Amino acid sequence: MRPLPNPLGSALLKADLRLRETDYSTAASLFYPAYLVFQPLSNWCLKRFGARIWLPLLVLLWGAVITGQAFVRTRVGTLISGPIALGLTSLDGRRIHGWHALFFVEGVITMIWSLVIALAVPNYPDNACILSESERQALAQTLNSEKPEAGRRKINTGRFVRCLFNPTMLLISLTLFCANIPLNTIMLFGPQVVKDMGFSSSQAQAMQALPGFFGLVGIVMASWYVKWFGSHFKSIVFTASAVVLGGIILLTTLNVVARMFALCLLGFGGFGMLGIGPGWLATNVASNVTLGGAASSVFLICGGMGGIVASNIYRNQDAPRYLLGHGINLMSGAVAIMLAALARYNMARINRRKTRNPMDISALSYDDIQCLEERHPDFRYIY
């Protein structure tokens, strides 16, 4: 989810709502702290109410919020719900803008989709109607074997804290911080960057679809990178290199075609890293509810922090070159490569140490062995 359901509507929002120069960046920045605060609560509600209730409810509420944005008339109206009712009574054809229809249509579609989710999503694999009985049993057995303590072992504070400061987990999570900078550049500021190349607002809206399409290609292809390169590390380097190249082009040329190609590289690389990082992290978190949950939380927090940074690097006073924003995008790609290299080095070092000096666990109880997690002598990091 993003502050705007579609970046095509953002180019005209500022003028129509009479937003000040800093209002758009401020609104985008406020989205991420709220997202980080409510994400743990949402996870608790998911466990409490089940996926079949909680997920459709979230989608329904989000669709209602998007639909309500169609009736916002002023910059203050984006902060309170009262103008929604006023907008419903005052809406007329002469005052409808393109972004009004965009919000309304996407909001209604989202709410309708919530009904589909409510009918299709099961709470547990053994309730999945799309699977045969044998498939449900096989999936349930696989999940139980991967996380045998799920739902039975209480969260251990010490293990949770240990995961928060696990170097490998932190390094991989910080790659998402880097990925969210070019990703949010395309999502939040792409139309404005394109417009400042000399295009009209309508042209910028149309051309913004190109970097978004390359982002879609990047995240879809991410599932194949590890197979092609045989390594999560090499996959991160490949996608982050696209971000670096895009940043270099944006900083060094005013050629419109080259700059559009550079924005496509930002989308391809940023979304590509987003598609690789979660899988790399999940692969290297031992099958444990506590540490797996903590790792996921840190991963999302790092991503949210990247969104906050990206929301404030494209300033109006930097137009049309946006040297600060493009420079930070270049740095995000370079830093992602360095973080991935450090993560790979640390994983290889730990694997070698375990091979040379394996831990003797013959005297440990079953519970003590379960608590070893990534320290278990048979566990090996995958990079």
Automatic annotation (TrEMBL):
UniProt keyword ATP-binding present: no
One function term, GO molecular function aspect: transmembrane transporter activity
Main subcellular location of this protein, as a coarse class: membrane
Domain of life according to the entry: Eukaryota
GO CC terms in record: membrane
Topology versus the membrane: Multi-pass membrane protein
UniProt keywords, alphabetically: Membrane, Transmembrane, Transmembrane helix, Transport
SUPFAM superfamilies for the chain: MFS general substrate transporter
Compartments, record wording: Membrane
Transmembrane segments: 24-41, 53-72, 99-121, 163-189, 209-226, 233-254, 260-282, 289-310, 322-343
InterPro entries, alphabetized: MFS (IPR011701), MFS_trans_sf (IPR036259)
PANTHER family membership: PERMEASE-RELATED, TRANSPORTER, PUTATIVE (AFU_ORTHOLOGUE AFUA_6G08340)-RELATED
Protein name: MFS general substrate transporter
Organism whose genome encodes this protein: Coemansia erecta
